[in-house]
Each structure stands twice: as C-alpha cells, then as structure tokens.
Amino acid sequence: MEGWFKDVIQIGGTVGALWAALSARKSAKISSKQLDNQIEEKKQVDRPRLVPLNHRVSTEIDSIFSDWETDEIMTKFRFKQRYKMSRFTVPIINTGNTHAFDVRYSFKLRGGIDSFRDYDGVNVRLLLADPELRQLGREHFNFIAYEFPIENPNAYEKQEVEVIPYIQYIPLIQNDKSGEMHLPKFFVILSNVYLDEYWKTNPNINNPEVIVTLRYKDQLHVEHTDRYLMTLSTKQVRTSGPEVNTWVDFEYIKPPKNDKKAHP
Hints:
By secondary structure, the protein is α+β, with helices and mostly antiparallel strands. About 20% of the residues lie in helices and about 35% in strands. The relative contact order is 0.18.
C-alpha cells in the first residue's frame, strides 16, 4: 500500500513539475512576444515619419499654363515647355522622433492613362499625344494641351506635357522639421482645367488624383515607404474671376495587411 502511495506521489510530482515547466515555457513565450511587440512599437515610434500637409492654394488662373502662386512670392509665372515641376510647394513634416535621410518623392496619376480623358472646351483642348497607348494601359504618357485665346483663336498656345514620376530629392528632414515638395506640372495644368469646369452642371474632366510616393531612410539606413493620395479639394472652392482659393488635400494610403511594405 505504501509503495502504491509513493508511486502516486511521484507521478503527481512529475505531472506537477511538467505542468510547471509548460506554464513557465508558455509564460516565457508570452513575455518574449510582449517584448517583441514593445520593441516593434518602439521602432515605429522612433522611426522618422513624413507627412505632406494639406496646403492652401490662393492664386489667379488666367491660363491653363498658369503656375500657382505661393504665399511668399505672389508672383505670376507661366509654365514653359521645358518645365517639369511647379514652383508651388507643399510642406512635408517629419512627425517621427528621428531624422529622415535621402528623401525621395515622386508622383503617379492614379489610374494612369485610363483615367485621362480627352477634353474639348470653349478655349481649351486636351488630347493624348499617342492615342494608341490607351490600349496598353500605360502609367507614363504624354498629353497635348491647347489654349485658344478668345480674342484671337488662331493665335493658340500648345504644350506637350509629360505624365511621368520624376524623382525629386531632399537630403535631410530633421524630426519636427519640414521640407518643401514641388508639385508636378501635369497636376497643376489638369487641375487648372478642372477648376474651369468645376462650376458646370456636367463637368467633362475628372478631378486629377495623384499618388505621392515618399521613400526615405532612418539613421540605421533602413528604408521606409509611405504613399498618399493627392487631390485638389472640392470642400471649399471659391472663385472670383480668375482668382481661386482652395486646398491641396492628402490622404494616407494604407498598405495591405498581408504585406506591410506593399502599397497599391
């Protein structure tokens, strides 16, 4: 009887030790996971994070080739054929806790060539430079913009505009500081035409939507990528003759859940 009782006690002790070991292992796993989560959260908090800020547009648009004025200069400029970027800039602020190095930004018309519509207005015309490219669904293409002065339609101005993601650089944006991002010429011209159509009952041109891609490195040379959807705001558009007041809006594009580094 005593032997049997001792066996039971030994078995119970073994089971208890095994249970304690399993519990300790489970606790260790939980603690390790919590530590990993804390480390990842700290990385996310400490890393640089660039955010383009919604920015006011207050300018006179007397031509579709009018560049937008800035708050500081308030001088009228017109795009020339060789121009690729606008003088108009929006601030990019670093909301992270560390500096952002080797900042690169680029722009892509959302939907590519499929989102571009030929337009034939009273004194403005937009046409694809190569209509055959539409069948290929290209993201990079050219369109031709014509403007016919009302007083002399024969003295028209014509420019071929490239829709390609020129990469622009900013060497450094310190934490809690901002850099300046120049907008692409194609966005400004398409927005100018859209504003001319905005007050019409059935506008014949889309409000251009552009995907802004920001790539930059942290102090450990780890690269980060963020994307935003840029549009001209229609929430509060005011016009008085050629003068326009509105905003450039930015909306963060979340990467797919199954791939933190992937973006649409």
